[in-house]
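RECORD TYPE: inverse folding
INPUT: structure tokens
STRUCTURE:
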């Protein structure tokens, strides 16, 4: 339900404060201020889905935008160029740590406020939804003295949360940990954190060169964005350092291929790589109202084909006063690859992609993201529909060879898309005219972008 404000009587300062506090209480990750010809639309993203929140009349639009830019220390006189800012405030007893971005668009200035939530990172690795097998692999990875560990996924898939949780686990008085980030998202006591500043030449690559002279045990690179950073990170891991970083790839195999495409020499990659953690976020079922239902024929086929299990009932979303359409929070779906000697040999000997793929997925060493997601469906943590939205089932080797199952999956996806469109939202897109819907992207669209 849309929220209403009395803009004529209520000060803009109080309205902004209420929007920020209410969004944080609702568990929103982002607040969008979208300018239109005759109003400003406020939307909030909860559990990955954008929802209409409030409308601001045109005559109050500039006041609201100016207030946000003022408290985030942006230049209020500049509206032609994108700007970045930050807000750190305590309102109504809630500590808010916000990142603010402005972008000039044809109808005005669009503002997005990201609400940073560190509760998951502070809770530790054990609270990130890893299966028992995957959790054991991650602990083995971070226990090695040197090597590179990559956390991969699309934008907004929780990579930073996972990396910070690993740093929390590794942060002891006996280790020297240095990070290079842009921006520093979470201040951690006992860790030396470097903020990059390309304007003065302090890039990831230049910072890394200096860090290697600071006697570090562990290095965290916020993101590997280019060939130079990738090569320095790999060489740093070979020379006796444990390196943690993130990369925009969807699977463990894609990660290996991306690094090779970045001209990292195969023999160095074979020596340096310790493991890859690929992840996506699925909406989590509300524990208060989730209900059981019978599985359909094709769902039983999927479970049997992928998990080799006969599943007759699964949990589904219902909806209550505690949640949003039956979902409350999000849970990570993981694919964890521990690099073994066979994969190292294949990399260093220049083996083709298909042979490496077989070593990664054909030996049973890796629980694929699809397998992990379906196990979480069986456990009642999420729904089959969520996994269908996030993961291309047709890409799974076991499913790609089953033509009847592929046809059933395509038909089901089409019916889900039609159903969601009728409800006015599909993966965060509101029901609007075709021209307006071009401005909204599904999760799959975002994954395909090389950001």
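DESIGNED SEQUENCE:
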């Amino acid at each position: 339900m849309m929220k209403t404000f009395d803009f004529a009587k209520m000060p803009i300062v109080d309205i902004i404060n209420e929007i920020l506090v209410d969004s944080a209480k609702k568990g929103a990750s982002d607040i969008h201020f979208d300018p239109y010809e005759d109003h400003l639309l406020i939307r909030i993203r909860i559990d990955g889905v954008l929802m209409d929140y409030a409308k601001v009349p045109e005559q109050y639009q500039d006041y609201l935008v100016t207030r946000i830019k003022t408290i985030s220390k942006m230049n209020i006189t500049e509206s032609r160029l994108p700007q970045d800012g930050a807000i750190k405030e305590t309102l109504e007893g809630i500590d808010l740590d916000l990142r603010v971005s402005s972008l000039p668009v044809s109808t005005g200035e669009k503002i997005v406020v990201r609400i940073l939530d560190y509760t998951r990172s502070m809770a530790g690795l054990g609270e990130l939804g890893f299966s028992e097998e995957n959790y054991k692999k991650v602990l083995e990875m971070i226990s090695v003295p040197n090597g590179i560990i990559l956390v991969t996924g699309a934008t907004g898939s929780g990579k930073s949360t996972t990396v910070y949780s690993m740093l929390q686990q590794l942060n002891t008085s006996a280790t020297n940990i240095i990070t290079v980030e842009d921006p520093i998202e979470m201040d951690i006591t006992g860790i030396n954190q470097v903020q990059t500043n390309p304007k003065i030449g302090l890039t990831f690559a230049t910072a890394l060169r200096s860090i290697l002279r600071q006697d570090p045990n562990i290095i965290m690179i916020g993101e590997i964005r280019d060939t130079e950073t990738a090569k320095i990170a790999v060489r740093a891991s070979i020379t006796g350092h444990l390196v943690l970083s993130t990369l925009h790839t969807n699977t463990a195999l894609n990660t290996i291929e991306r690094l090779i495409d970045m001209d990292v020499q195969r023999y160095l990659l074979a020596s340096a790589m310790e493991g890859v953690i690929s992840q996506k976020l699925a909406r989590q079922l509300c524990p208060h109202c989730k209900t059981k239902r019978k599985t359909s024929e094709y769902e039983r086929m999927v479970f049997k084909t992928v998990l080799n299990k006969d599943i007759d009932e699964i949990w589904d979303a219902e909806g209550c006063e505690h949640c949003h359409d039956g979902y409350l929070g999000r849970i990570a779906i993981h694919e964890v690859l521990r690099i073994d000697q066979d994969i190292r040999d294949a990399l260093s000997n220049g083996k083709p992609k298909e042979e490496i793929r077989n070593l990664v997925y054909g030996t049973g060493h890796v629980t694929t993201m699809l397998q992990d997601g379906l196990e979480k469906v069986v456990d009642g943590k999420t729904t089959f529909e969520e996994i269908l939205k996030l993961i291309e089932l047709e890409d799974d080797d076991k499913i790609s060879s089953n033509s009847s199952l592929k046809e059933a999956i395509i038909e089901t996806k089409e019916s889900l898309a039609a159903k969601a469109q009728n409800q006015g939202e599909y993966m965060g897109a509101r029901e609007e005219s075709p021209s307006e819907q071009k401005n909204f992207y599904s999760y799959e669209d975002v994954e395909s972008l090389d950001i």
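NOTES: The longest helix spans residues 403-422.
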